[in-house]
């Protein structure tokens, strides 16, 4: 059992983007660029990261460059809390087979970095309308095809088998309009997958930010937390003007947003949650907010675990 001090809590590297300032893909950048960005995380008092493939897709690195990344990581005094895939669905019509191969490669690499969970999901590339919006969730995006649901189940089982062989787990990220886009759909999909090495990522921040009706967050968490093995954790404001029907939302640090994470994290522990956390934030000084969120989670864990001791 983890303590509040050593519980895996990583900073998502998404805020650095997939290219360097001169336009070079991070994948092709020199290791000095990787080191410089990792150092910014360490300087904020955070010692773990999630190298999302939206920053540095480890699955696409050669074996030599994987080892180069490992040396840079060690040199900056950082470790990995988890590995996440972003917008690379295993049932993407054009790229699904390649995404499946990449997911399997992530699972293969994970144990050598001390990672116990690889996260994936069914969200796909942003549309032009989403990319042009102030916040991408203000425009409609990809909607999963019901005809591909059985294939999705089959491929997730393949990932589950690979994870089990490596002694790790796969987590499925909840995201609107996908097979796991609501609490009920997520639980039903997981039930149909029926694999001991596959769980849910209850990233309900993806849902409460939407400008549409969503189920109350306490009800959603109550349904999905018993099945959760990893957690992309972030918060937003959420408001509805009853006179006009207009919604508003914006990213916020964990303790200031719509979801009461002190309550939710404690409830998760009561339900047996033992997975890593990955802190995310959009806009403003994302990395600075993430660092504050890491410390907030550790304080909540410290209080909750001391009470249980």
What is the topological layout?
Layout lengths: L8 E4 L18 H13 L4 E3 L12 H13 L3 E2 L2 E2 L11 H14 L7 E5 L6 H5 L16 H18 L2 E5 L9 H11 L4 E4 L3 H4 L8 H8 L6 E3 L1 E7 L4 E7 L8 H10 L6 E3 L6 H23 L1
Parallel strand pairs: 1-2, 1-11, 2-3, 4-5, 5-6, 6-7, 8-11
Antiparallel strand pairs: 9-10
Helix pairs in contact: 1-2, 3-5, 6-8, 9-10
CATH architectural label: Alpha-Beta Barrel
Helix-strand pattern: EHEHEEHEHHEHEHHEEEHEH
Give the radius of gyration: 18 Å
Number of domains as seen in the coordinates? 1
What is the CATH domain class? Answer: Alpha Beta
The whole-number mean of residue pLDDT values reads 97
Write the CATH fold name: TIM Barrel
CATH superfamily: Divalent-metal-dependent TIM barrel enzymes
Enumerate how many helices there are, as a single number: 10
Shape: globular
Q: Count all strands and give the number.
A: 11
Protein name: Sugar phosphate isomerase/epimerase
GO molecular function: isomerase activity
Domain Xylose isomerase-like TIM barrel: 38-299
Keywords: Carbohydrate metabolism, Isomerase
């Amino acid at each position: 059992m983890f303590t509040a001090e050593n519980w895996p809590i990583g900073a998502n590297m998404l805020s650095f983007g997939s290219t360097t300032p001169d336009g070079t893909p991070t994948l092709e950048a020199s290791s000095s660029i990787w080191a410089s960005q990792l150092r910014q995380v360490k300087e904020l008092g955070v010692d773990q990261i999630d190298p999302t493939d939206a920053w540095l897709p480890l699955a696409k690195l050669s074996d030599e460059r994987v080892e180069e990344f490992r040396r840079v990581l060690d040199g900056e005094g950082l470790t990995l809390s988890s590995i996440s895939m972003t917008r690379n669905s295993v049932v993407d019509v054009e790229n699904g087979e390649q995404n499946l191969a990449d997911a399997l490669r992530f699972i293969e690499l994970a144990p050598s970095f001390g990672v116990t969970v690889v996260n994936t999901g069914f969200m796909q590339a942003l549309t032009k309308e989403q990319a042009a919006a102030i916040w991408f969730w203000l425009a409609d995006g990809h909607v999963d095809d019901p005809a591909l649901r059985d294939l999705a189940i089959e491929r997730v089982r393949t990932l589950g088998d690979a994870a089990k062989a490596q002694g790790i787990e796969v987590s499925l990220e909840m995201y609107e309009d996908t097979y796991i886009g609501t609490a009920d759909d997520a639980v039903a999909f997981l039930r149909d997958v029926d694999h001991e090495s596959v769980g849910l990522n209850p990233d309900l921040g993806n849902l409460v930010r939407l400008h549409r009706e969503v189920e109350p967050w306490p009800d959603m968490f109550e349904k999905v937390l018993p099945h959760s093995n990893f957690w992309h954790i972030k918060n937003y404001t959420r408001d509805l003007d009853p006179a006009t029907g207009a919604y508003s939302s914006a990213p916020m640090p964990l303790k200031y947003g719509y979801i009461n994470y002190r309550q939710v994290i404690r409830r998760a522990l009561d339900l047996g949650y033992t997975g890593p956390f990955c802190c995310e934030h959009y806009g403003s000084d994302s990395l600075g907010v993430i660092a504050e969120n890491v410390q907030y989670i550790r304080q909540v864990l410290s209080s909750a675990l001391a009470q249980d001791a």
